[in-house]
């Protein structure tokens, strides 16, 4: 007679649905990030960003200036007031301006240097984003293409193999965080996809440390370990 105590488990349908959604979202984001990072690989011509907008003490500032921005008179950590006369109230203002720009255009920027209140109008010419030397390009491809896609596929493969294992889900959270270390210029992706990408990045950045902490507690054995009986 068959063992009456045997209970057949239901297939982990919900886990598989969640995994499929997560996989599609992660791959979709990463493909778009790859296109933005390496436009020349896809036959696209995009201008190089003259600076990156960053919040510092509640103000939007320009950081990581390129040579053209410095030559135009912009200084590192200048407060950005306006782009093309439009009040700079968020990074999307800069992103939308860059998404419409082409190499050879000029970016009209109004800035001020703290603590001064004097505003300066600058005209920054935009250069075409060019390829780096071969050794540098190889390292960037490794960090911005190979590592992110490897992290996504490895994490999802582990969950696919062990969908009910909480450690597997913690691992995919850690790996997705690792796949989003570098900026992908989501500000310039346009409405809709920009909002999705911002939400995805924010979620990954907040979930990553939590998953890392709990993954360290439960894998490979719970920490702290139980007492060993003699």
Structure description:
The protein has 2 domains: 13-39 and 131-218, no CATH class; 52-125, Pdz3 Domain (Roll), CATH 2.30.42.10. The protein has 6 helices and 6 strands; from the N terminus they run αββαββαββααα. The chain has helices at 13-37, 67-71, 91-100, 134-161, 166-178, 193-218; strands at residues 52-56, 59-63, 78-83, 86-87, 106-112, 119-125. Strands 1, 2, 3, 4, 5 and 6 form a 6-stranded antiparallel beta sheet that branches. Strand 3 (78-83) and strand 4 form a beta hairpin. Helix 1 runs antiparallel to helix 4 (134-161) and helix 4 packs antiparallel against helix 5. The model has no long low-confidence stretch (mean pLDDT 85).
Please tell me the overall pLDDT: 85
What is the ordering of alpha helices and beta strands? HEEHEEHEEHHH
What about the largest sheet? 6 strands, antiparallel
Derived from helix and strand composition plus strand pairing, the structural class reads alpha+beta
How much helicity do the residues have? Answer: 40-55%
User: How many runs of DSSP E, i.e. beta strands?
Assistant: 6
The figure for the number of domains is 2
Radius of gyration: 23 Å
Oligomeric state of the chains?
single chain
Q: Spans of 5+ residues with little confidence (pLDDT < 50)?
A: none
Count of discrete alpha- or pi-helical segments spanning 4 or more residues: 6
- Give the overall shape: elongated
Distance between the termini: 41 Å
Strand residue content: 5-15%
């Amino acid at each position: 007679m068959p063992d009456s105590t045997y209970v057949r488990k239901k297939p982990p349908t919900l886990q598989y649905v969640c995994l499929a959604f997560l996989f599609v979202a992660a791959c979709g984001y990463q493909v778009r990030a790859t296109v933005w990072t390496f436009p020349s690989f896809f036959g696209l011509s995009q201008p190089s960003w003259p600076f990156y907008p960053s919040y510092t003490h509640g103000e939007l500032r320009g950081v990581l200036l390129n040579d053209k921005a410095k030559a135009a008179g912009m200084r590192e950590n200048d407060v950005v007031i306006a782009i093309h006369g439009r009040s700079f109230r968020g990074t999307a203002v800069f992103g939308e301006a860059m998404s419409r720009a082409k190499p050879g255009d000029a970016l009209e920027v109004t800035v001020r240097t703290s603590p001064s209140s004097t505003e300066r109008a600058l005209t920054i010419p935009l250069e075409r984003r060019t390829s780096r030397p071969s050794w540098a390009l190889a390292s960037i491809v490794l960090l911005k293409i190979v590592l992110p896609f490897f992290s996504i596929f490895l994490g999802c493969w582990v969950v696919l193999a062990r969908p009910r294992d909480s450690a597997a889900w913690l691992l995919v959270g850690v790996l997705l965080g690792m796949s989003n270390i570098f900026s992908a210029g989501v500000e310039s992706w346009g409405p809709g996809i920009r909002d999705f990408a911002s939400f995805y990045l924010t979620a990954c950045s907040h979930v990553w440390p939590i998953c890392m902490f709990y993954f360290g507690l439960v894998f490979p054995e719970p920490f702290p370990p139980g007492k060993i009986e003699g």
